[in-house]
Amino acid sequence: MEQDLREQLKLIVGQSLSESQTPGAAIAIRINGQAFLETGIGYQDHEHQVSLPTDANFYIYSITKTLIATASLHLVGEGFLELDAPVQNYLTDFPLDLSVTLRQLLSHTSGLPDYGGVPAYSEAIKANPSYPWSTEAFLDLAYRQGLQFVPGKGWAYSNIGYLLLKCILEKTTGLSIQKLLNKIIFSPLSLKKTFVPTTLYDVDELTPGYTAFFSGDQLQDMTRIYHPAWVAHSVVISTAPELAKIIDALFTGQILDLSLVEQMSRPIHNLGKYKLFENLGYGLGLFVDTESSHGKVKGHTGEGPGYSVAAFHFPRLAGYGTTIAALVNRDKSDYGLALVYKIADVIESIPAIRNCGYTN
Asked: How far apart are CA 322 and CA 301, in angstroms?
């Protein structure tokens, strides 16, 4: 019965890829801490010549925020950081007048602007994709725009906020974000292919990621031209099996004390009904659906040139704690998320999974 379900899931994902004209997807499902399905479906190239391997490397884009938040909460637990301390306690040269706290940075309630919708940012990437802005340039953009609202009195997604978190983590620990994430997450979980790239030389093994962002009409592989530092807070490269392992370990207390995970999972701001979510909120580095039919669903999405990715934990999917990661090698809005929920709906609908022998 388990094998039948695995084959059905592969078939459904394959059909979705064909319908959406997407080359491939890497999928990983963990049920009660055990790997249930880890597979590549479709192709790694747009010409459909090379099958996508199970351990294909992808940028996980904004799922990196969940890892930065995890590292932040780890340091809170160790007493090195305080969630409600102002940023100026850690970055003394932070120039904005009003106090912004770490909790507000983590929850996107700081009022800091974002660069995602700024025309100059998109124009600069298209003009010089291999030559990213410096940290100072990103922060200068934020300083010139100023706070968008009084901290704690609104919600707006801000990559700049997570850049400041990265700066705080590095200054507090004396470690680069690469070394810090390796120490707290990657090494303890014995991950082999998950890391933080800093140059184009580091991304040689990325699976091709297709986008029309640079040409305007034709799809092209962005992996050899798009510098990872265009993601200001840094971007992690991972595989579907290793990403699923991280998210699953987070929610089962293997990385953080569960009391800290509960703080991360508590929505600071609710957005209500949004796309596939019944009541979407944002906690500390996590999207949280508090009214899903699958229970309190927690995780993050990632979007950027070449890829659409998502990884979510379902607390009681068909009666079991289940983590699903979907990494897609074309940048179609929320497509990774759509695959995660499509897989979850299939698992929930099949009684056989309830008798698979997983320990509750």
From this structure: 17
